[in-house]
């Protein structure tokens, strides 16, 4: 059965990367459409009229939006190499921590990233508290999913890359091996895992992008 | 099922708690309801939800499940024999999850703005709230439920909001039905289900809670 799978993404979106990984881990052939979010294509707006965002997965002409929803759709449609736990309780925990990653963790890391120097210590407190909670989840495990990569690893994938970018731009160590041994270890394993490692966006481009973004935020925050 | 222990930590006017109570009622699950006082959280709540310290929390045979939509999905999976709430088709399921997520992302901030602010800020919140409801009306279309012929995840996610309409309308001095008649018709239809009518808080009690919250936060 010839299936048509398309993925609308941008070169840098960590949300879209989740789906790239999922499709590749499952060995699914798909077509990539790169979007410029300052000039969205009519197709993107047609497939995601509510949010107009990436990623959008279009399977045989039918669109699925919101990366975590798409991840579950991919897992349920192509059942080999399962990404989510089978047990309902474990599944609910994976979903909980994915939400935590997107809501609390991402927000606190971002607040630290755009904080003025004098505000960095305060911003760091919440970020570090959230990191501690995530560190706890990795105790006794190589990946969030266990011995192999799963849904929650893909959900946290953006973090593995962004941490090193933040650390380079801000010249600080956020996830140090002493305070966060499990998280540090997970980052190393995940960054370099087969399939995962082939998909990272170009690092030099990412550094420039986020440096520019940070400068904009800092400039806007500075009283004139 | 023998030996099942189901406890729900809940707060009466919480729309999120109502979602879980509806799901449990749809499945006919026997459970113990523990009403929390959010100004004096119980040790059980703090132990079971140390990350957010929020309700609802479902405790199933000693294990906590958190976040109302995650709990509803868990209930649907564990007690899958009766009244399925998520569609069986993966694509339909993805659409339902998308809309449940939309409700969680878009509805609650403007809703809060209606009772917690005044003047221009309140007018903006009312406008945004109605816009979101109109988008939901569009998605509902001519279907009896968001789930189509069957009551489902999106209906469960949204219907508790209806118990707050009286509070919104009184605080905001407007009528939701005049702007979103289809949605109010859908809500009234849902209220015919016992699981819904028994789980939704009384609108006047909700309004009393809102008045209490306004006092607590120093909002006139």
From TrEMBL, chain A:
GO molecular function list: glutathione transferase activity
Residue ranges of the GST N-terminal domain? 3-82
The residues forming a coiled coil are none
Question: EC annotation?
Answer: 2.5.1.18
Q: Which residues form the GST C-terminal domain?
A: 87-212
Which Gene Ontology biological process is one annotated for this entry? Answer: glutathione metabolic process
Q: Cite the entry's keywords alphabetically.
A: Transferase
Q: Which PROSITE patterns match?
A: GST_CTER, GST_NTER
GO cellular component terms, A-Z = cytoplasm
**Pfam families (UniProt xref):** GST_C (PF00043), GST_N (PF02798)
Catalytically driven reaction(s): RX + glutathione = an S-substituted glutathione + a halide anion + H(+)
Query: Would you say which domain of life the source belongs to?
Result: Eukaryota
| Enzymatic class | transferase
**Which family does the UniProt entry place this protein in?**
Belongs to the GST superfamily. HSP26 family.
The name under which this protein is listed is Probable glutathione S-transferase
Q: What is the lineage of its organism?
A: Eukaryota, Viridiplantae, Streptophyta, Embryophyta, Tracheophyta
From TrEMBL, chain B:
Q: GST N-terminal domain spans which residues? A: 4-83
Q: Which PROSITE patterns match?
A: GST_CTER, GST_NTER
Q: Name one GO cellular component term.
A: cytoplasm
Ordered alphabetically, the record's keywords are:
Transferase
Q: Does the keyword Transferase apply?
A: yes
Q: What sort of enzyme, by top EC class, is this?
A: transferase
GO molecular function per UniProt: glutathione transferase activity
Q: Pfam families, per this entry?
A: GST_C, GST_N
Q: What is its EC number?
A: 2.5.1.18
Which chemical reaction does it catalyze? RX + glutathione = an S-substituted glutathione + a halide anion + H(+)
Q: CDD domains in the record, alphabetically?
A: GST_C_Tau, GST_N_Tau
Q: What Gene Ontology terms for biological process does this UniProt record contain?
A: glutathione metabolic process
Where is each GST C-terminal domain found?
Answer: 89-217
Q: Which PANTHER family match?
A: GLUTATHIONE S-TRANSFERASE U26, GLUTATHIONE S-TRANSFERASE, GST, SUPERFAMILY, GST DOMAIN CONTAINING
Please report which protein family the annotation says this sequence is part of.
Belongs to the GST superfamily.
Q: What is this protein called?
A: glutathione transferase
């Amino acid at each position: 059965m010839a299936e048509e799978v398309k993925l609308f993404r941008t070169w840098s979106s960590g949300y879209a990367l989740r789906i790239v990984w999922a499709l590749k881990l499952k060995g699914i052939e798909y077509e990539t459409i790169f979007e410029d979010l300052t000039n969205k294509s009519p197709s993107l707006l047609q497939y995601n009229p509510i949010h107009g965002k990436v990623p959008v997965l279009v399977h045989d002409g039918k669109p699925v939006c919101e990366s975590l929803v798409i991840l579950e759709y991919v897992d349920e449609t192509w059942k080999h190499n399962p990404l989510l736990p089978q047990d309902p309780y474990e599944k609910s925990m994976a979903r909980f921590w994915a939400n935590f990653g997107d809501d609390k963790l991402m927000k606190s890391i971002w607040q630290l990233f755009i904080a003025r120097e004098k505000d960095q210590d305060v911003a760091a407190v919440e970020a570090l508290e959230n990191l501690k909670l995530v560190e706890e989840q990795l105790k006794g495990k190589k990946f969030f999913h266990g011995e192999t990569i799963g849904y929650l690893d893909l959900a946290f994938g953006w973090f593995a890359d962004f941490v090193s970018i933040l650390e380079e731009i801000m010249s600080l160590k956020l996830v140090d091996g002493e305070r966060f041994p499990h998280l540090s270890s997970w980052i190393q394993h995940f960054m370099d895992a087969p399939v995962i490692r082939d998909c990272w966006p170009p690092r030099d481009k990412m550094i420039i992008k986020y440096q520019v973004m940070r400068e904009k935020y800092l400039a806007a925050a500075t009283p004139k | 099922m023998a030996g099942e222990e189901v406890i729900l930590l809940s707060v009466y006017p919480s729309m999120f708690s109502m979602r879980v109570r509806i799901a449990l009622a749809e499945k006919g699950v026997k459970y113990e309801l523990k009403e929390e006082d959010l100004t004096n959280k119980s040790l059980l709540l703090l132990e079971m939800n140390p990350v957010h310290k929020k309700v609802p929390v479902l405790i199933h045979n000693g294990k906590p499940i958190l976040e109302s939509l995650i709990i509803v999905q868990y209930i649907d999976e564990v007690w899958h024999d009766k009244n399925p709430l998520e569609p069986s088709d993966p694509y339909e399921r993805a659409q339902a999850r998308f809309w449940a997520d939309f409700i969680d992302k878009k509805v609650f901030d403007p809703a809060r703005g209606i009772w917690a602010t005044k003047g221009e800020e309140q007018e903006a919140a009312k406008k945004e709230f109605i816009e979101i409801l109109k988008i939901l009306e569009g998605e509902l279309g001519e279907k009896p439920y968001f789930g189509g012929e069957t009551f489902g995840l999106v209906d469960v996610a949204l219907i508790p909001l209806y118990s707050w309409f009286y509070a919104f309308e009184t605080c905001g001095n407007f009528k939701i039905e005049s702007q979103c008649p289809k949605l109010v018709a859908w809500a009234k239809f849902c209220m015919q289900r016992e699981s819904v009518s028994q789980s939704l808080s009384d609108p006047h009690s909700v309004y009393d809670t809102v008045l209490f919250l306004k006092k607590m936060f120093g909002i006139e």
